Amino acid sequence: MAKPEFDVVVVGSGAAGGMAAHELCRAGARVLMLEAGPMLDLEKDFFHHRMVYEFPHRGLPKRERAAYCYAANAWNKASFVDERENPYTGTDFVWVRARAVGGKTLHWGLVSLRLAPNDFKGRSHDGHGVDWPVSYEEIEPYYERVERLIGISGSPDRIPNNPDSVYLPPVPLTCGEHILRRGVEAFPDRRLIMGRTATATRPHNGRPACHYCGHCDRVCDVRASFSSLGVLIPPALATRNLTIRPNSLVHTVLVDRNNRATGVAYVDRVTHRHEEARARVVVLGASTLETTRLLLNSKSAAHPNGLANSSGVLGKYFCEHIMGGSVDGIIHELAGRHGIPSDARPHGSGAYIPKFRNVTERSKEFLRGYGFEGGAGAGEFPGVAHRLAGFGAAFKREVKRMWPATVGVTGCGEVLPRADNYVELDPVRRDAWGIPVLRFHVTWRENELAMVKDMTAAAEEMFRAAKIEITRIRPGPLPPGYSIHEAGTARMGSDPRESVVNRFNQAHDVRNLFLVDGSVFCNSSEKNPTLTIMALAMRASEHIVSERKKGHL
Q1: 376 to 170, 187, 458, 459: CA distances (angstroms)
Q2: Is the pTM of this model over 0.85?
Q3: Which domains does the chain have, with CATH numbers?
């Protein structure tokens, strides 16, 4: 057998893979990072500071790639998976995948929320699902280390269900968000705060402060907003311990007769040539569903149901966020106020209404709960235009008058982890490179539907309390996958019969195999997952370093 060339091979380069590579390289490990997409240049390959009318839109095919993704548009679609080359089957699902060095952090919304103590203890709290094998108190030091590393802007709001972070100064609320706050806080159990966002609002760790161009989804050219490509990968490369191999579609984890992972097999995205990479430790951070797809495809005589799947749990208990209760409105007292600054600000820095249902008690209608994300103000493009009547010059004047007066929110709720929400390999269909595709079995059930009904009612009553004219209600729910906050399918646990990895993200069945993305989540909570993914990846990497020093890996 060929001698391992690397200490660790990391599959994926986004929040999970990028953080693992950053920590491992800085600890002295020789790391090979395999990424399914190309390497991009922050300054040359993205369309910074250009207006929407500078792009050719007419005649473009509709929804060719990353259907429904809020971040997919004409100037970044090359980063997203082409669904014609990468099909999937089963129930209706919106699977958003980014393939480029940096992964989905190239286009994410930057929302950075810690899970709360109760989020780690779901079964103890309400009897559903399982408790995580780790507590909030154990993960809290890693939250803080990640926050100090990448920079999180926000305010210490002292909300029990939304633990505070280590903050840079917050982005201010807009005038419209202050008005919405009046309606929200007319109810004693509700708060409206500024969203907590991975944006440097002042110089931070060698990065300049945000200049409020509002083009975070085109990747920040000065690295003020966080991406793995801009913040994690450069220092890892500077150690000279990191080798990046882009355009590498990993399809199998290689395992020897002693049940040790020896590396991975992959196919070159461009040439279709098959290759192998050898390493002493394998770390999977390809994103929840891609990691699970890879493990299911790595079956063998010793692992007939997929690698690390002696429990039979792999692929099951998929959980994410259900989105619905979207309400848009117009704040008439702001109409025509053209002196109001536009909403050109970092993604994720709009209003956030934290969870206010079922925080300490079981709800009669549903378990767990939801929060709202949204914002108000004049964005880059007047999206209100298609909801206004008129034609010609008078219509244009009305669009301009109403531009700074728009406001909207969308509910984001926890989907309960269930064994019958699962993915498996399609027995027949393969992608353009010959790799079996996933088949989805994911649906909304009574708990989620009751939650969406409550979202809609709550959003309407808050808008009315703020005296905001409601112009559109989209009760939802939006399709499974729409949140892009995929989690579960390879959950962690102390019992190898009921979980895939242990409390350090280490596979029960293969000692030198680690999973560091959202696949290990036991439940999703109603909070965005990226900060927790990075904290767990940092902790797992620290464990790998420690175990290697002891000679255990």
Answers
A1: 16, 20, 18, 14
A2: yes
A3: 1-49+67-150+227-315+417-442+484-553 (3.50.50.60), 170-218+321-414+443-479 (3.30.410)
